[in-house]
Amino acid sequence: MKRKLLTMMMAFVLVLTFSVAGCSSSKDTNDTSTNAPDTTQDTDKDATSNDDSSKDTTQDNASEDKKSVVTVACGAVGIELDLTKKAVELFNQDNPNIEVRVLETPDLAQDRLGLYLQFLEAQSSDVDVYQIDVIWPGDLAEHFVDLYQYGAKEVAGDHFAPIIENNTVDGKLIGMPWFTDAGLLYYRKDLLEKYNLEIPTTWDELETCAKTIQDGERADNPDFWGYVWQGNAYEGLTCDAVEWIVSNGGGSIVSPEKVITVNNDKAAEIIEKAASWVGTISPDGVTGFGEEDARNMWQTGNAAFMRNWPYAYVLGNSDDSAIKGLFDVVPLPKGDAGRGAAALGGWQLAVSKYSNDPEAAAKVALFLASYDIQKLRAIEGSFNPTIKSLYQDEEVLEASPFFGSLYDVFTNAAPRPSTATAPRYNEVSTYFYQAVHSVLTGESNAKDALLELEIELQDLLGFEVGAPE
Ligand code: GLC
Predict the structure, then answer these.
(1) Average pLDDT, the chain
(2) Whose CA is closest to 26, among 82, 77, 66?
(3) How far is the CA of 395 from the centre of ligand 1 (A)?
(4) CA of residue 423 to ligand 1 center, whole Å
(5) Distance (Å) from CA 78 to ligand 1 centroid
(6) CATH architecture of 183-344+415-465
(7) Tens digits of residue pLDDT in 255-265
(8) Segment (H or E) for 447
(9) What are residue 46's phi and psi, to 5 degrees?
(10) Which of 166, 167, 239 maximizes ligand 1 atoms within 8 Å of its Cβ, making it the mutation to test the pocket?
């Protein structure tokens, strides 16, 4: 795992070094690559324009002297990267004095965070805009500018207020909301019908349905599984497990009042339940699954149910999907709390304090988070907008009808305890998902794992221990 991360980091740094060589040189008016062509151009053209630019070095005109390069570090899950590139092209068309470059980052949230921290802690100007997770504002605030100083005041009111609040640290808006996320249950309509089953609304019903369909489908398809989700030891497992525990009345690790609540029977019970899925209704390999692993199995028609974020909706309905038109989404099942819970996810755009041109960077961040771009991403990628009025937009609702029907799920999603535990949330989550993972893999039982976790969290945070309310 560590080695894989290290390799990824090195590869990333290489890519960045290459891309940043272009960035810094184009900021330097004496450098021959001031007129460096767009990286999407073919090599012949590159060679030609590079020649031209070296001839031109001494006679660059004033507007080109002022050209800024803004590098945006962003995600590449599903078609995320393509949509970001598309938006950037639109920006570049209208803003010849700012060249935006897109930097692909790893899929798993904490791998991405590890890379970001390398740049941020080195106070590097190589990346100007960072796509940051909804759980990171409290941990990373010190590295970002206050977007209220760069034009965000006029638009902040258009976005969901709780997200703006989440992104506001000491009165500073450190991230422009880009898209929001909530965990959903994807189910195969055709298979429920085939086996004469209702949509499951509790975890017990989900188990029964998943088993029935799996047993039936295995006759023709030995690779078929009942339920796929995110069981790797990473931030995604924190989301899945928070959903299980909240739905079962076991609280969300640490309460907003800064009480450590995670060591309780309701939490232990539902984690044991999830562990019982591994190798029965879920593949053994689920303990290594991230979002894309689950989606791949689902989208190739090899699973009856999937827990995932909204982005999998448009992809599941794409022409190359084996399950196009055969599925729908509903809220995740209920446990003893009597209601299902969706983890609150989502991503923001933050501008680095170490950027050479925070003004240009903020302009890019605001553009990417604007109504038009959020609309494009909602329609083409089922990324949930953070701009309230887009939930009334007919084209958006036509592309993803569940934005309307599951509106309450999105506005009532369960937050992870990132505000209460900042700036240590990432450590809290790491202890948490490691504890849950140890139960899923059978290394530990839930009671012991949660007791140990409680002690670790007390040491880390110095908070009181108590029961979830
Ligand atoms: C999604 C969510 C994000 C979460 C991550 C976990 O990207 O939007 O908030 O941390 O999944 O894998």
Answers:
(1) 89
(2) 66
(3) 26
(4) 18
(5) 13
(6) 3-Layer(aba) Sandwich (3.40)
(7) 999 999 999 99
(8) helix 446-461
(9) -55, -50
(10) 239
Q: CATH topology for 68-181+345-410?
A: D-Maltodextrin-Binding Protein; domain 2 (3.40.190)
pLDDT at residue 208 greater than cutoff 70: yes
| Integer-rounded Cα radius of gyration of the chain | 23
Q: pLDDT band for 48, please (50, 70, 90 cuts).
A: very low
Ligand 1 lining (C-beta closer than 6 Å) = 109, 133-135, 181, 235-236, 239, 291, 309, 345-347
Q: What band does 333 get if pLDDT is binned at 50, 70 and 90?
A: very high
- Quickly tell me which residue has 């937009």 as its tokens: 393
- Closest-CA residue to 246 (of 134, 133, 332): 332
Q: Judge if 68-181+345-410 and 183-344+415-465 fold alike in CATH terms.
A: yes
**Ligand 1 mean position, distance from CA 111 (Å):** 12
Q: Which amino acid is at 152?
A: A
pLDDT digits (tens, 9 = 90+) for 146-165: 999 999 999 999 999 999 99
Domain ranges of the chain: 68-181+345-410, 183-344+415-465
Instruction: Ligand 1, residue 180: give the atom nearest the CA.
Output: 8
Residue having the nearest C-alpha atom to atom 5 of ligand 1: 236
Cα–ligand 1 centroid distance for 163 (angstroms): 14
Nearest CA to ligand 1 atom 4: 345
Say which amino acid occupies 214: Q
